[in-house]
From TrEMBL:
Family as reported in the entry's similarity comment: Belongs to the peptidase S14 family.
Domain of life according to the entry: Bacteria
Gene Ontology CC annotations of this record: endopeptidase Clp complex
Matching PANTHER family: ATP-DEPENDENT CLP PROTEASE PROTEOLYTIC SUBUNIT
Biological processes annotated in GO: protein quality control for misfolded or incompletely synthesized proteins
Region feature Disordered, mapped onto this chain: 251-270, 357-383
Record keywords, A-Z: Cytoplasm, Hydrolase, Protease, Serine protease
Protein name according to UniProt: ATP-dependent Clp protease proteolytic subunit
An annotated Gene Ontology molecular function: serine-type endopeptidase activity
Length: 402
């Protein structure tokens, strides 16, 4: 989700590619024909690497230069728009929908895999929407990630903004399907998935194409949807059709292709591929997995450093903090806190031990308590003083006689 309160219509990022891939492709494919290919996440701007500032590799649909690129198909009589996207940023989706809707030619949208969330808004720009039996269309309500302090008035305003955004989407769906706006909003609230003919029955598509269409499978944890070879992060979605095939952690070879090399030709059908076989047969997929692993590692390291910085002041030991971040034995913020506590405990124990040694070496243990409140003299001295006082008293009392 976006780190703002901007309404959004879908979840997480797509899997990345080996090299940065442009987020769309718009081209003239004939004298009077044009084609627009929209694969990947719908985003407000091209993501960049936090460390380098370079564009993140991956499939993205963003508004940068989109209107300029549309010049390649403006004026064409026939324009084909191919979509395989689980959506993303709402306002970007509406902007692209309006831009395509404004083209003068006959626009045919082909849902080559999935048109979900904001991508379903874009699909409604077509004069004709075509789907395969396995193509999917999904609609749901807007959502946003809030990261700030908000008053009740702020939240009430945000609620009104979300409501207005959701009504705008429903109006676009209504123009395409003819379904009443309130009924559409109910469908959006419960996150409605439509497969093939279902999209046609609900008015979101017009034509059912021949063939089975895209190969679709979902991970066992329902976090990743693989559609026509494109991996979509669907974390946060709830009603993914149960009819979608569950895929295993190991990719299967493409239909009709038998594994070759590295002993693969003798491998049983249900035996997992080796890494070498995967790299030989699916280099792009392996590259995607490796790139995703790198991205995850960077994110985890960044989070570790930020967590350490958040407790550095309470640790109060700059060297200990540096070692935790960059030393030979790096650690997490939790481990750093434990080390700091252990160090303080060790310093306290040393202080007590040093104090005990100082006391032993001072000889204080050999000094006894002084009698008579600490005054000088022995008990015999005290008796002599008392006897003298009594003698003086008696002399005075008897006229100087003893």
């Amino acid at each position: 989700m976006k780190t703002s309160n901007t309404p959004r219509l879908c979840a997480g990022p797509q899997v990345v590619q080996q090299t940065p891939t442009k987020f769309w492709n718009i081209a003239s494919v004939g004298e009077d024909s044009g084609e627009i290919v929209l694969y990947g996440d719908v985003v407000a701007r091209q993501p960049v690497d936090w460390w380098t500032g370079e564009p993140e590799p991956g499939l993205y649909i963003a508004p940068e230069s989109f209107m300029e690129d549309l010049a390649a198909v403006k004026g064409k009589s026939n324009i084909t728009i191919k979509i395989n996207s689980t959506g993303g940023d709402l306002y970007t989706g509406i902007a692209i929908h309006n831009a395509i809707k404004g083209l003068s030619g006959h626009k045919v949208v082909i849902v080559e895999g999935i048109a979900a969330s904001a991508a379903s808004v874009i699909a409604c720009a077509g004069d004709e929407v075509q789907v395969y039996p396995g193509s999917m269309v999904m609609i749901h309500g807007v959502a946003g990630l809030l990261m700030d302090y908000y008053t009740l008035a702020d939240l009430k305003k945000l609620q009104k903004d979300f409501d207005a955004s959701e009504r705008a989407i429903a109006e676009i769906y209504h123009a395409k399907t003819g379904i009443a706006v309130e009924q559409l909003r109910t469908m959006m609230t419960r996150e409605t998935w439509m497969v093939g003919q279902e999209a046609i029955d609900n008015g979101f598509a017009d034509t059912l194409l021949e063939g089975d269409g895209p190969d679709v499978s979902v991970s066992a944890d329902k976090q990743v949807l693989l559609v026509a070879g494109i991996r979509h992060n669907i974390k946060g979605l709830h009603n993914v059709p149960s009819t979608i095939r569950i895929n295993s952690i190991h990719a299967a070879p493409a239909a009709g292709n038998k594994p070759t090399g590295n002993g693969g030709e003798n491998r049983k059908e249900d035996e997992p591929m080796t890494l070498e076989e995967m790299r030989a047969q699916h280099p792009d997929l392996v590259a995607q997995i490796e790139q995703q692993a790198v991205a995850n590692a960077i994110a985890q390291e960044r989070a570790r450093i930020e967590a350490i910085d958040s407790i550095a002041a309470s640790v109060g030991d700059a060297q200990l903090v540096r070692d935790a971040k960059y030393g030979e034995s790096t650690c997490t913020a939790e481990q750093l806190a434990l080390k700091a506590m252990q160090k303080q405990a060790a310093l306290g124990a040393k202080h007590l031990k040093d104090a005990a040694n100082d006391n032993a070496e001072s000889g204080a243990a050999d000094v006894g308590a002084a009698p008579n409140g600490g005054e000088e003299g022995s008990e015999a001295d005290d008796k002599a003083k008392v006897d003298a006082i009594v003698g003086i008293y008696n002399t005075t009392k008897n006229g100087g006689k003893k």
